[in-house]
Amino acid sequence: MVDEDPGPDAPRRARCLLTKARRVSLWLEGEQAGARYALTLDGAAVDAVVDQRPEGALFHLDLETTEGTVALADANAPEREWTVELAALSSAYSDARERAIQALHAPDTTAADALPEALGILAAADEAVEAHERPLLACMASQLAYEAGDYAAVGEGPEAVKAAARSAGARPLRCLGAARSQAAYLHLYVEPDFNASEAQLAAAIAELDGPFVHMLAELDLRYFQGTLEFRLGHLDEALVALGRTGALAEALDAEKRVAAARVMEATTLARLGRFDEAQVLADALATRWRPELDQAEPPAHALDVLSDLAWVALLRREVDPGTPDPSPQLRALAKAYAARGDRRNASHMHLNLALAAIQGGELGTAERELEAIDPATLDAHYLIWRELLGAQAALGRGRSTLALEHLERAGAYAELTHDREHDWQLWALRAATLHERGDTEGAIAAYERANAIAGELALAIPGDAGRSLFVTSHARADARHLELLVETGDTRGAFCTAVGARARHLRAQWARARPRLPPERRREYQRLLSEHQALEASLAARSEDAWELSTSELEVLQRALASEGARAEALLAQATAILEEAAPSWTCDQLWPRDPSRGVMTMAPAARSTGSTRSEASWRFFLATADAPVELVELRGALEPEALITAAVERFAAKPEGAWSTLDSLDVIATHELVAVDIHGLLAARDGPGPRVVHYSLGLGREPTAKAPAAPALAGLDVAVIASAKDLAAAREEAKAVSARLTQLGAAVSPSWSPLDAEQPTLMHYSGHGYHEGLLGWGSYLVLDGQTVRAAQIVAGQRAPQIVVLGACSAGTPSPEAIDGGMNLASAFLLAGAQLVIAPTRPVDDAVARRLAAELYASDPLELSPTALAARLAEVQRAEVEA
Description:
By secondary structure, this protein is an alpha/beta fold. Among the domains are: 20-88, Immunoglobulin-like (Sandwich), CATH 2.60.40; 91-223, Serine Threonine Protein Phosphatase 5, Tetratricopeptide repeat (Alpha Horseshoe); 520-573, no CATH class; 588-696, Nucleotidyltransferase, domain 5 (2-Layer Sandwich), CATH 3.30.420; 718-882, Rossmann fold (3-Layer(aba) Sandwich). Helix content is 52%, strand content 13%. A seven-stranded mixed beta sheet has the order 5-4-8-9-2-1-10. A five-stranded mixed beta sheet has the order 13-12-11-14-15, with helices on both faces. It is globular. It starts with a strand and ends with a helix. This is CHAT domain-containing protein.
């Protein structure tokens, strides 16, 4: 495709150059709802296959000619019209191209030796071809140079194409994009220089900016942009770019490009700890491409896809040792690459085999795999991995001096990559090595450095499920750090490490710890929230009459709503990112109990050995109180989560000098699968001394100037009592009874609430439906006045009542696969500023919910403070257990 500039007085035009009549496709970026398009060829209407998607519209046209003018027009907007001229490539160009390719691949010679002859054929054709085809010869020369390994010529290729284009007055969109993509690839993988790669991609975006873009050129540039972000460690940006690339490639039915984008997307998801999502993509790709490995000569692109899928499996195995060992496939891939003479990728497979051997405890095998690798075939990223794996193998065999030597070399290579993930790996492994050498102080300092880097990496990821999963996947270094602190008797440090691993990334989203935004940033934040609110209201309004639509009309609406829903999520993410700019860092001191009658309990699993499961590993429980040393209980064995908590409580209670019996209340900061245990119920059913009031805590600590709030007078107090479920008579009755009780006591009761209200009520009591949905609960929501209020929206709003009572099913349901329990409506309100949230963790029986609501506000006098209401809840629960 050529974008021609006929002169200052004529509009630019696109010319599609064809070797033969075939299917052509036109893509219009962006939402096309409401448009009514018609395609014509030389003014006559033609049939086309139309594929409408949220991200754009794709038109497929089967041509029977190589000449003519294709026009696409929107009947509802006459100014929206595009024309593309069709033209046949000349026989002179086609002949020169074919002869040059044959010369490069001539038998009994190498591509490097044959390159001059091939380039000579193209140069000789310069006068014979049409003017607009001369830039295509330059493109072809760059492609041949790439195949022959003349990388200097590849780097110069884009400028050569531009020079030819200037003289011809036409930009060859496809091949200029290809030349830039080849140069970007060169600097990403062959001769790594990420700045040069970024410069090539930026130049391509500028050069190809205009009304016409070749879709395959656009696809390749998007892919390499995502790959560059991945190599730089910008995993969230990479995920977005690769996801869009894969979607467009699927729309174009470009199978190889789909595979390339989706496998990189799966790899990025795995790096982020989002293994279930990565596995869905990996399984689909494996089904399509694994049979290719059985061919006598598997195609290169199939090998590349399968090698990346094996890497995804290795990443998952780092976190879950029970994941199947991909070594058999890695050996087959190494053999296939070697048979093709691809030493670089064969070396990558041997690196992966070394990692698989380390994961399986076969350290000698790992060292042999590493020794077989020629370092000259590796770029800086792979050299780092070679040294890190060498350090792990040496450390596992007790050779700590050799491990440190590997780490020093890895550090030198890391200076070239600027990848913070490498820095984290280095410091975590350095800590383990120093520990092995007996340098406890150095090991603890190295773990603290690794923890700080992990925190930076987490906060660079949008504050949603992705961040939780990333933190969960990096928790293994925290587990080893904690073990070392326990060994040295520093139970306070171990307690802080256990809490920090699940809490430090959440404090950035906490309303009560955040300083006020500067005026300009606050206006931008409020603008984003307002746009989001308006868009959500529009989505709700457009959905109301969906039941009246036909199937085809409903599909159009669904596409439009999907696109606008994605835009709404993006607005919310931007608003949340502004909030986190000035967020204070988490410190353990802010968490420490001040009242001697109040304790804080947390827990953490020990680092697991290969092949073990969490239930078989040991757990450590910590109890912190105001004046006494942190108490520690260690448990080992295949116990269920409830049994683990019960056993830990009994061990704390049995300590002769322990603090358990002196406590009136307990904050519980649960982690991993123990977040799902009903600790309220366990302690309510327990006889004997110990805390009577239990708070689940996110581990955020106190705000910097925290003071215990005085109990407000009930008379005139603003409260909100909401019944949102029109289909739940019990919910309406519950809200009516609560409203009557609080009105009787003098409160000013409102039947509505919004997360955007500047003035928030002291109490909100919600009775109705609650939904725990989405990845790690980040799609959870309530319905207020017919509009959806999502957990993410509540967090971003940063406004909440002081006390929130949610009579809604599963409003407090945690996600045990995440170290921090993921997101739910209760956590959302706490992050938005609430001091107490009362919410069920499972579906609610209507009668039970109504009885609890009645009992909660039945005391006389009634004190609406977080402390008093939490104590009242404990009384009600204990009375129910006793009854």
